[in-house]
Amino acid sequence: MERASSLRRTLRLSQVVFFGLAYLAPMVVFAIYGTIVEVSKGLAASSYLIAMIAMMFTALSYGEMVKAYPVSGSSYTYTRRSLNAHVGFMVGWAILLDYVFIPMAIWLIGASYLNAAFPGVPIWVWVLAFIIVTTVINLFGIELGANINVLMMVFQLLVIALFVALGLAHLAHGGGTWISLRPFAAPGSSFSAVLAGASIACYSFLGFDAITTLTEETLEPKRTLPKAILLVAFAGGVIFIVASYVGQLVHPSLTFHNVNSAAFEIASEIGGTFFSAVFLAGIIVAQFASGLSAQASAARLLYAMGRDAVLPKRTFAYLHPRFRTPLFNVLIIGTIALMALWMSVETSTSFINFGAFSAFTFVNLSVIAHYIVRQGQRTVRDWLVHFTFPLLGAAFDFWLLLNLDKDALRLGAAWAVLGLIYLAFMTKGFQKAPPELSMDAHEGIPV
């Protein structure tokens, strides 16, 4: 469903890029650093490089689809219009996987770091604390203001810059080198391990496509948004590669006291007690803010789907009479997040990436369907930009999907089958088009 045409076009390129980076939450590189090091067998920087290449091809495809459909869009919108309504619904179902389960992963990562700082407190206590506090806040409809988000974004960038600077100073003081291929390649390293790490590393990039929701508020969106999407994916990739590169030079070993909080151990090693406290504060602030907004977005997306009769209205379209918040949806997201008590960081992030890779694959295919098949544009540039690049992007995304954690693949496949059964039920055996989903989580929803 498209947003009202009355939205004012005021956003420039720099503002859109900053929004995208804030949504990306750059400190996420530290949240899953140890997991990627472990899975990639010590080649986290290489895994991030491959992930960035895959995301750049996909970012190009998002840019091309923004030109084709200059409205507040998503992978669901592009797939539905370019390929098929039923395929579009399944892509929307995959996106729903991200929305619903991302809060779980965010809170699990935050709890892992707090457990590392305060080992006497069991991790399940921190998980429950995150869930309870954010759920209560979202039930009252309290959201983080734009100014607070800006401050938190600046704080994250400062912590990352300090981590890199202190890491390099630590290497210089200890007689280490700043230049090495060790974080990218090493004797006995395995490309399959690097791919497995890259499939998790892509979790750090989730959200680079969120700026497509600003299409109707951006000046010259057909020119501005494609540039912004590429810049966000590239800038995020550079930050992730540099941070993981320095981290591996400082701590080349694959052994950590707790792999889920490996970056905290490195921060303590290079900056002592004070910087480790600042670093922990940065991680927790980033995870708390991300979890708060992720739960709010997921609850409001479920509300929109209930309002549009994609999900049962009585439950999902219900609003609290006083606070005007989607009460049941907030509670549902909080309840689902309890799965964090039994899941690892690797499995939870891989599970979310199943939905992301599925959606990214179909965005790339949508470019080919729209420009080459439907529009019949087949110049030399079209075969390169509208066929070769998106085909490479789709291949990369599907390849990374196949390299996800096995448990995540099983859970993702089960989710897809559930969506297919529900689609068959709604469309009476695929005989009619499914209802159109409102994939903009804040469209027309009281907050």
TrEMBL record:
Per the record's keyword annotation, is Membrane included, yes or no?
Answer: yes
Which keywords does UniProt give here? Answer: Membrane, Transmembrane, Transmembrane helix
Fetch the Pfam families from UniProt. AA_permease
What Gene Ontology terms describe where this protein resides (cellular component)?
membrane
What membrane topology does the UniProt entry give? Multi-pass membrane protein
Q: Which domain of life is it from?
A: Bacteria
UniProt-listed PANTHER family: AMINO ACID TRANSPORTER-RELATED (PTHR42770), PUTRESCINE IMPORTER PUUP (PTHR42770:SF8)
This protein is called: Amino acid permease-associated region
Q: Which organism is it from?
A: Alicyclobacillus acidocaldarius subsp. acidocaldarius (strain ATCC 27009 / DSM 446 / BCRC 14685 / JCM 5260 / KCTC 1825 / NBRC 15652 / NCIMB 11725 / NRRL B-14509 / 104-IA) (Bacillus acidocaldarius)
Query: What taxonomic ancestry is recorded?
Result: Bacteria, Bacillati, Bacillota, Bacilli, Bacillales
